[in-house]
Amino acid sequence: MSKSTRKSVLPAKTHGYEFGGPIGAFAASFGLPIVCYLAAFLCNDVSGCPLPSTLHPRSIMLKGLKKEAGWPQNGIQGLASLRVTGFVLAYYFFSFLLQGALPGLVVQGVQLRSGGKLEYKFNAFSSAVTVVLIAAVGTYLHGPDFPLWSFIWANYVQLITVNLGIAVCLATFVYYRSFSVRTGNKHKRELAAGGHSGNIIYDWFIGRELNPRIEVPIIGTVDIKAFCELRPGMLGWVLLDLAFVVHQYKLYGFVTDSIILITLFQSFYVFDALWMEPAILSTMDITTDGFGFMLAFGDLVWLPFIYSLQARYLAVYPVQLGLGGVAGVLAVQGFGYWIFRSSNNEKNRFRTNPDDPRVAHLEFIETKSGSKLLTSGWWGFSRHPNYLGDWIMAWSYCLPTGIAGYVVKYGSPVVMSHGDMVDGEGFVSGGSVKKQVLQGEARGWGMVVTYFYVLYFTVLLIHREMRDEEACKRKYGADWEEYKKKVRWRILPGIY
To answer: What percent of the chain has pLDDT over 70?
Structure first.
């Protein structure tokens, strides 16, 4: 490719490294998958949450750690499975089929730099409902022994591996394919502003092409980034939660209010996002970021397997909240959702139709680029009120686990009824058992796992806000500085 041709393909405006540049991209590409595996092994139904040995670090032995973690007997090979790979690929293929076969809303995206707009077919909600209905019918016919639920629980680690492999393959495929982007191509392909640094590791991680698409026979055009954003991973999160609910029932003969709350909250969050699918067209993920390992891994691995950790914990150690606890958690969730959804709706209504009576009274700054920046209503409260609502809701996913932590003890068989208490602390798995799940000395230490989501989400939202800030500075220039004088606070007024 000649130098002149290369310039014509690149965006007019580029920016420097993010996420710590190549070193940060390398660390995230290897470190974050390790975090997923650590969460799976360090909090389990074999020895406890966290592993008993980690409470006494001076006595840690590798052999003992492997036993407590439930490390596969055949070593690292046990992290993968051809059988599991086949089932996961079938799940992805079925998702493709549903996108192509089911009717959907056809919407145009935002204006592209090269001119024109891409078309998107949205039917993620009906696709997800179809899958959940199939699972519901299977559960009705087979009860808790429906193979889907036991398959997910028994192959949890292998599911992480397969989805990680898919993310790596997708990132590699779109990276190499991005070099075929040409000026004036009929498919409106473009490179992302931040994804062509020339460093292979960084560009593979961050994503070179803005909206990579493929043509699939029978199904038609598939936008890889939009597909991954709301389909296999988001629905996978719900399916994981449901599998954990079923596992708790199979172990104890009942389902606790805590795991029901978490599953309902997270399912509502997912299906609300799917119902509002066209809203993703105005997000940074779609309009600005290229599609690389960062988004592929985040959508397909990190989101379903890290976001469902609380339900997985409760599947092994049930927690009953009672009416007071349920009311408190509901209040946190409701307050967060009210801020999140009402602020997003206000923004979307204003962008779609500024004359809508519900938003016509709002004040705004009109920039030189023609965009309008709200300075009253929710968006006068702070620059990212939706982030605040999202963060508050994150607490409602973790609070039901309480003061978390448990140990699994093995002993002589004891005969007890379902739900009987052992030493006033934990539950037994019912009937004639050899395994007891107690809190013991692990009480509180399990919060490292069950409350990790809140800590991670705090970092994520602050980092995302900082990226938004830089993007807006580049886009609006002096108008953005004027806007910041009117809307001083980034997320939470008086604090940040």
So the answer is: 92
Residue pair 213/223 in contact (Cβ under 8 Å)? The answer is yes
- Token representation of residue 91: 């799940």
Question: How far apart are the C-alpha atoms of 348 and 352, rounded to whole Å?
Answer: 6
The radius of gyration of the chain's CA atoms, rounded to the nearest angstrom, is 24
Cis peptide leading into residue 493 (ω within 30°): no
| Coil/strand/helix, residue 61 | coil
Q: Which of 251, 260, 281 is nearest to 108 (CA)?
A: 281
Task: Report CA torsion sign: 180, 182, 187, 192.
Answer: positive
442 exposure class (CB count in 10 Å sphere: 0-12, 13-18, 19+):
buried
State both tokens at 142.
């087979």
Query: How far is Cα 265 from Cα 326, in angstroms, rounded to an integer?
Result: 12
Tell me if 294 sits within 8 A of 205, measured CB to CB: yes
HSE on the CB side for 397, CA within 13 Å?
Answer: 30
The answer to whether residue 9 scores a pLDDT higher than 70 is no
Cα separation, 120 vs 112, in Å, equals 14
Per the CB < 8 A criterion, the answer to whether 48 and 317 are in contact is no
- Residues 216, 327: Cα–Cα separation, whole Å: 48
Task: State pLDDT tens for residues 111-127.
Answer: 787 778 888 999 999 99
Q: What is the pTM of this model?
A: 0.87
215-247: per-residue pLDDT in tens? 888 788 899 999 999 999 999 999 999 999 999
- Are 299 and 156 in contact by the 8 Å Cβ rule? The answer is no
pLDDT in tens, 280-339: 888 888 888 899 999 999 999 999 999 999 999 999 999 999 999 999 999 999 999 999
pLDDT (0 to 100) of residue 429: 44
Q: Tokens 């994520």, residue?
A: 460
| Cα dihedral: 348, 354, 358, 362 (round 10) | 100
**Inter-helix orientation angle 156-177/82-101, to 10°:** 60
Q: Which residue has the tokens 């670090």?
A: 57
Which residue shows structure tokens 């032995």?
Answer: 61
